[in-house]
Amino acid sequence: GGLMTFSACSDDEWAAGPQTDPSCIGAYFVAGEGFDTSDNSYSYEFEPEAATELTLTVGRTNTEEAATVGLVQLVNTENIFQVPESVSFEAGQSEVPITVTFPNAEIGVSYNLELGFVEGTYDVYNKLTTVKTEVIRIRWEDLETAICIDGVVPYFFNAPYPQPFYVDAEYTSLPGGVERVRLTNPYKPATGIDENGIYIGYPNNEEADMVSNNVIMLIEISSNKASIANTGLGFDWGYGEFSTGTVATNFGQPESSYPLGVVTKDTEGNIESIVFGANSLYASMAAYNDGGAYPDPNPTCFFFSMDAFNTYMEENFE
Known about the structure:
five-stranded mixed beta sheet; twelve-stranded mixed beta sheet
């Protein structure tokens, strides 16, 4: 079983349109998770510490014999992507993964790769004979001041409200106008209180309450509106792990009744605050009423400057 030989995959002899040669192996790119069929594209975001590689899958319609298909690089930003020259199939094999690496990609820069196949190896009528990939390694910037007022716990328990505490927060802005704030383990137990009366960590948890210390709460921002995917908060007060998220996006509810978070920025475009107002977030405990989600009347707020925090407190609580 040597390599099969290819005749051209298109042949104009008998018709106005191109024809596919019956011996053509019909190479194509397999549409995997996150594939956008409108332009045959993937968009990948990698954390800075993640492996700098991705996998694409090549398929073929004619699987009888062993075959090798040459890959063509149509776009490769700064030649950052290292791509195999070809992909080889064993007899009977219909799909083969290929690994693309980009070890020299800088953090915070968007790179593009577009691949196709050597002519004669694909069906000209198959729309999946090229694939585009955009890759960015996310650049997270520390937000020096990040203060939370939690409204989730007071839905179920008589926790003090408002009770401000510091959280660890980072910010990124991505191509296409999306911004994110990432909170790492925001409800970890407090280690003290500062001169402003703000706790360092969440004052109502102890280590015994924690079921996870790997919580990442991701706040997605678009057009100055903020949403949160359903997120386990890492602690349990006897009714299962708490979780929260935005009602509108997680349950397909109208924003008119369940608003998204409101993002406020300073004159330079830096985020000053994100306020999830009444009924924006839900409160849930895994073992309470089958983990039912309850729209939360208490705002949950994040402030990224002391001025923004003080102004909000004066306007709403004094």
